[in-house]
């Protein structure tokens, strides 16, 4: 006879298993929900500083604007960018730079109210949301406190780092009615602060909005310029004191089909800020080496090609490899290439960072310090680094014949030339524009000259015409009197506005 409780017992056990499974499922679902919430939080936080990122900042700004609409209040938005922070990364490495950024975040946070939001927008950029302001001036007062918080030095290991910032300020409703407009306008004001030297606060104006739009359009045009063949190399001749052609400095120019010529002072900083200088700089190096190799093959006299190196190119790990490849591909001899680096750039480098200079010098490449005399006062690096050339900054050349006489730079120029010659370095004077400057530089013992008096930057065909003129004059002079000194007249060049040589 079957057990009457058998089927009931089996059903009861099945029910227990079912309930147990459902319990585990509910626990799993709860765990999944918790992980999803944590993931959502992480997606709205900056991994380095732990501050809200751009997503959370935008959400909070939108909510603050809704409240301000209802209560007719004011909301402040600040955009803060640390000045020249790339130098900190170059000096300390990215690990040290990250530690400084964490310290910056803590200091800035300490100046704000509990209801304010400090967000890290990536890198060394921060944004601040100031809800429930009494008036727009409250945003400016908050910005001033942020600047003051950055004044004490930061510590990274045993090093002290001094920082400043550029801050753009705007407020709802006077400077914008929606989140996107306010963020764009704060950024425009920040860029104005940077253009005026940094370590300052700028408030948004309607003019800044137009400038921001033009900046965005120019950046997009610059991205297309290399691909569309709008970039061009110009060559400014350099001469020995006796009139012989020494070579040329390669200078980048941009001729936009609609905008026309865009000044280098306008597009080169933009290219560096957006890292476009890396592909553009590599193209400029390869193109100028290719062109100089062709000219060198057609003239018996050795010519030197000077090419500028930006801070971003220098910091890039394989820039010396790019130089070697450009020489190999073009066939230009290494000793015919001179790389120009600014004094302040060289002084910021550690021992390992300047190893590429030593490697390039070993194969014959020359190394020049550009704008010499405008940077650091320490001259120890002249012996420590494989430098071959000093380029006297044009500000010293312009002041050679200054009035009254005590304002003249003659004593400084003489001292620099004597120092350079004692170290067996070549001296090139930049920005020579008058006969008087040339004559004085000759008396002071300068080696080479460059400037508008001698020749403006020329496109490749113009420089080629100069080379042909030099060859013709030499040929005629040799036939007339083999021992006669030949003076080389420069070809006429079109007039141009007086601007800095770059």
From TrEMBL:
Residues 18-45 form a coiled coil. Residues 73-206 form the GGDEF domain. Signal peptide: none annotated. Keywords: Coiled coil. Residues 215-471 form the EAL domain. Pfam families: EAL (PF00563), GGDEF (PF00990). The keyword Zinc-finger does not apply. This is EAL domain-containing protein.
